[in-house]
Amino acid sequence: MNAIEKISEFLKFGSVLGLERMNVLLDKLGNPQDSLKVIHVAGTNGKGSICRYIYEVLQAGGYRTGLYTSPFIEVFNERIEFDHNYISDKDLEIYTDAVIEKAHEMVAEGQDSPTEFEIITAIAFLYFKCHEPIL
Question: What is the pTM of this model?
Fold first, then answer.
């Protein structure tokens, strides 16, 4: 089973409000988001365009930059991009397996399962954490 098929298994949980599952999942992953500098764009229309503009401006300024978008247009991998490269199939497999292992731990401990979106978001955080520059 490939990474996208593994992620799709979590689709059945749909959209569930609250951050409890995400907080537990990220804690189990060592809270990769805590060391990232993030710009979060929310709203109804234009999020993808605004994110792309910010990403390109930061890239032009010499910053190493990641971009996480939803949904994808052509290929799933475009949802997670770092320094103008989509996450590779190999990296997607590696980070998906790491996140899903922790999601299964959550369920085994009697916690609610993360949703598909939460799984993908955790994959992006972990991927970006592993690609941040060492200062």
Answer: 0.90
